[in-house]
Amino acid sequence: MTGCTHGNGRALCFECFKAGMERTRARQAAWTQRDLPFERPEPKRKLSEQEIAHRRRMLDHLVDAARMGA
Length: 70
Ligand SMILES: [Zn+2]
Prior knowledge:
Blueprint lengths: L13 H22 L13 H19 L3
Bound molecules: zinc ion.
């Protein structure tokens, strides 16, 4: 690895590998925190009877399709 200052002479320096992992993790954490304000999960809404009925029809259709071997 270029820029290795650990001087153990190995092709894969564990110290550098670990440092790289920590850098990646820190970057991911920073991104996650950055993204948080934009992540506005929709408030949980109760499904209407019509929506539930629609889902039931879809499920029935899927069950029928599976039975028919589609
Ligand atoms: Zn190193």
